[in-house]
Amino acid sequence: MFPLILSIFLTCMASCLGHLKNVYNIDSSSNGVSDMTQTLLNAWSSACGNDSGGTVNVPSGTFKLNTVTFQGPCKGIVSFKVNGILQAPTDSKGGADWIKFSNVYGLQISGSGTFDGQGSTAWKHTKCNKGSSQSAICTTSLKFNDVKNATIQGITSLNSKFFHLAITRCENFSINEITITAPEDSPNTDGIHISNSNKVQVSNVKIGTGDDCISLGPGSTNINISSVKCGPGHGISIGSLGTSSDELPVQGVTVSDSSFTGTQNGARIKTFGSSVSNNVSDVIFQNIDVNDVKNPIIIDQQYCPGSSCEEKGDSLVRISNVKFINIKGTSTSDVSVQLNCSASVPCQEIELQDLKLTCKDGQATTKATCSNFKGTFEGDQDPPNCSNTA
Ligand SMILES: *[C@@H]1O[C@H](CO)[C@@H](O)[C@H](O)[C@H]1NC(C)=O
Ligand SMILES: *[C@@H]1O[C@H](CO)[C@@H](O)[C@H](O)[C@H]1NC(C)=O
Ligand SMILES: *[C@@H]1O[C@H](CO)[C@@H](O)[C@H](O)[C@H]1NC(C)=O
Ligand SMILES: *[C@@H]1O[C@H](CO)[C@@H](O)[C@H](O)[C@H]1NC(C)=O
Ligand SMILES: *[C@@H]1O[C@H](CO)[C@@H](O)[C@H](O)[C@H]1NC(C)=O
Ligand SMILES: *[C@@H]1O[C@H](CO)[C@@H](O)[C@H](O)[C@H]1NC(C)=O
Ligand SMILES: *[C@@H]1O[C@H](CO)[C@@H](O)[C@H](O)[C@H]1NC(C)=O
């Protein structure tokens, strides 16, 4: 006699298909009706608690889902197949992230479904709009804390209140063929934010948001990003760094075979002027097309967006061994390459090779500016190289 929305149909596919075990189908009759949080949590518990893992199936339809944490560790691999639309509450209650996966080792999220963060009301709040950090109102849509051996495939993340996906203390994490969408003027709606994580791979994704398509915070190591279509948004950024005293280095980042269209930045490294020391090293941005991008290549070591910070002198983040290779297209500003490094810890071993960056009309040349920079220019040099001032 329990309500339909609370019913889970446990389909033991094992009997008919042999290899597919423990499939928990969410009842599609809860479509549009009411909150399915408890239903989904129950399905998660069953799949997570089974020695041979399990699959949670969300069928097509539209389902309301409140703030929820899917807690591990699980006994086996848990798969989430989402083909329907999951809708966040329009106001985030209690300041928690919308959907959090925590301590899960072996996670697969797939399907053609959509995670709709319903962010438009949150974006209007001053806290989200003017602040650059998360608040009780602007929360992340999909948060992964301490998740290992994970794959995310196929899904769409729409209109998050803050970041779309945030990946923290994760390892061996792969994101493929997903779509992330929010309006160009939505604040802090970064597509994928990665921090304190090792071996994260992102490929074949389409991201258009109001902030960075992908941002790599402190402790991002061995990150491989390829085939990203970015725009609108603020580009693919390493940073911001130099914000907290216990930051770990960023090392081993490759961004390749990607395009930026109508974005504020293309390839960017940003660090605050602060007393925080850190290192960024072994970074490659390679084979990148830019179409009408304001700052195609930018290292900004005096990053200080708007009124949310004050310039506090030189950055102590040391940037070394960074390569920008085969970056072509059009810039909407006449400075297409801007390397503003720190006077205290100048950029070292920067290599710029085969750059062809022209003005928006495709004709006029652009400029490169650099300060406190040690590096080389090779191959095509359009803009002409800037003089080495380190
Ligand atoms: C795991 O799933 C199998 C197959 O559905 C079932 O027979 C078994 O009781 C489940 N085990 C647990 C611990 O839930
Ligand atoms: C990740 O998967 C590998 C290979 O299956 C396994 O050896 C390793 O223990 C897994 N890691 C975690 C944290 O479960
Ligand atoms: C990484 O995770 C995948 C599953 O997503 C697993 O097959 C693979 O063995 C893992 N690799 C390592 C080195 O743990
Ligand atoms: C990065 O991923 C791409 C696509 O999966 C692959 O071709 C490339 O070899 C990887 N690069 C590194 C440095 O792992
Ligand atoms: C950065 O690199 C320098 C020189 O290799 C090293 O002395 C320092 O400890 C590193 N800092 C961090 C935060 O890793
Ligand atoms: C970068 O440096 C140039 C030349 O020193 C300067 O004109 C410009 O304002 C700086 N840009 C930023 C974003 O700090
Ligand atoms: C800058 O370009 C000029 C002219 O092509 C070349 O002679 C010079 O070696 C280049 N400088 C650097 C630092 O690559």
UniProtKB/TrEMBL annotation:
Gene3D superfamilies: Single-stranded right-handed beta-helix, Pectin lyase-like. Residues 1-18 form the signal peptide. GO terms for molecular function: polygalacturonase activity. The active site is at H234. Keywords: Cell wall, Cell wall biogenesis/degradation, Glycosidase, Hydrolase, Secreted, Signal. It is found in: Secreted, Cell wall. PANTHER family: PTHR31375. Belongs to the glycosyl hydrolase 28 family. This is Polygalacturonase. It comes from Lithospermum erythrorhizon (Purple gromwell). The lineage of its organism: Eukaryota, Viridiplantae, Streptophyta, Embryophyta, Tracheophyta.
